[in-house]
Amino acid sequence: MASGSSASIGIIDLILSEHKYMRDEYEHFKSVDDEAQLDSRVRKWIAYISLHGHKEEIAFYPNVEAHLKDEKKGGHHLIEHGIKEHRELETELKKLSEESNVTWKQIRKAVAKLMHHLDEEEADILAPLRTKLDQQVQLELARQFIHAGQLASEKPHPELSKDPERAPVENINVGVVEKQ
Ligand SMILES: [Fe+2]
Ligand SMILES: [Fe+2]
Asked: Which of 20, 39, 118, 180 is deepest in the core (most CB within 10 A)?
């Protein structure tokens, strides 16, 4: 079921490590001269980012909303905003994935949406949660997040619901069909 890392890393550090991978991959793209190699790495990157967002919508956002309730903007607002940004990012990732050969113009468009979302999620959701979730809860949420990888889609789906109540189920329905 869950990978070996599930027992030792909490949800905040797990999500941050996945964000780091997304940023590092983009930095790496800049040094890839071979077009076919760049194309292949960008397509893996699109799948990784799509899966990450879908895992958050299935197993992270719904579980932490209540812990963000006393924040200035309110937990529901923060989660709703996060999902809206996922859809905007997925719109650009989908365009990129539909190019026969990926272009830097479209990579940069996707990166602009990605960086904005990662920075905001880290500041508004992950940082406040670190002090609110005890270590046992963080480990359990990490386990659920990893497990959601078996349900979630690896493709960008800008058409999925922006509604925090509907998005988790739609994500699972789409992912399960793709994995059949
Ligand atoms: Fe994230
Ligand atoms: Fe996110």
From this structure: 118
- Condensed to tens digits (0 to 9), the pLDDT of residues 34-82 reads 999 999 999 999 999 999 999 999 999 999 999 987 667 788 999 999 9
- Classify the phi-psi angles of 50: left when phi > 0, otherwise alpha if psi is within -120 to 50, otherwise beta: alpha
Question: Of the bound ligands, which one is closest to the alpha carbon of residue 15?
Answer: 1
Q: How far is CA 163 from CA 57, 87, 166, in A?
A: 10, 11, 5
Cα 53 to ligand 2 centroid, rounded to whole Å: 5
Distance 40 CA to ligand 1 centre (A): 22
**Sequence letter at residue 153:** S
pLDDT in tens, 14-41: 999 999 999 999 999 999 999 999 999 9
pTM for this predicted structure: 0.94
